[in-house]
Amino acid sequence: MPYKYLITTSRRPTRRTRSFCKDLQQALPRAIKINRGKMSLSDVALKAIELGANRVILISVYKGNPGRIRFFSVSSRSFYELPPTINIAGVKLLREFPRAKSMNPSSLFILPQAGSSSEVVLFAEALSAALNAEVVSSELLNNLTSNSAILRLVPKSNGFCRILFTDKFGVPIGPLINVKSAWLTLKKPFSPWSGEIVEG
Q1: Is residue 10 one of the residues assigned to a domain?
Q2: Which of residues 196 and 174 earns the better pLDDT score?
Q3: pLDDT for res 3
Q4: What φ, ψ does residue 101 adopt, rounded to 5°?
């Protein structure tokens, strides 16, 4: 069953972080963006259930820029954090690309670049579970529909990897994310409904 994503931020987001969330919303199928305001994470979970979302994507701010991405599973019975946690070194917004397009994707696929390290492959698998998106190889791109979104993982020589959202032809449809590191095991697993939440 396709997932529906609710995207929101930590409290007091900056303008650039709000723009990043808007770009992310456009790149993901069935994504909704809401303003956090004074909502607790429990309130965000209830809002997600009201809107029919299966996942919450929380963007935290660091020094005025998007700094971290966290994923949560949500249902009428539970709300808990999922790996991976993505630590961001920097982002490039959709408007900052010389050639990009807006798109309303119907599906999402994850494509690690050929020859990626085992760490990047494990990161792709964690993203696949968090986003309910299939990991594919470049050989399968021609079989995808024209309105498929591709989350590409591109290794960096001086860092971990980049995330780039494109259509099947490689045209950007969302933000570029320079990933500083990714935690595939949660530092402190919790369920916000257990009363153990530390607000982000």
Answers
A1: yes
A2: 174
A3: 84
A4: -150, 155
Residue 40's closest CA among 15, 10, 17? 10
Question: How many domains, in total, are found in the chain?
Answer: 1
Single pTM value for the model: 0.92
11 in a structural domain: yes
Would residue 194 count as lying in a domain? no
Domain that holds residue 70: 5-189
Q: What is the pLDDT of residue 191?
A: 58
Q: And the tokens for 112? A: 């690690």
**172-183 and 161-166: which strand pairing?**
antiparallel
Give the C-alpha separation, 16 to 23, whole Å: 11
Q: What is the C-alpha separation between 29 and 52, in angstroms, rounded?
A: 14
Where residue 124 sits, what CATH number does that domain have?
Answer: 3.40.50.10480
Structure tokens belonging to residue 195: 């009363």
Q: Identify whether 105 is preceded by a cis peptide bond (ω within 30 of 0).
A: no
CB contact burial 110-136 (16+ within 10 A = b; e otherwise): bbbeeebeeebeebbebbbebbebeeb
Residue 127 in tokens: 């993203």
pLDDT band per the 50, 70, 90 thresholds, residue 193: low
Q: Within a domain: residue 197?
A: no
Do the beta carbons of residue 130 and residue 55 sit within 8 Å?
Answer: yes
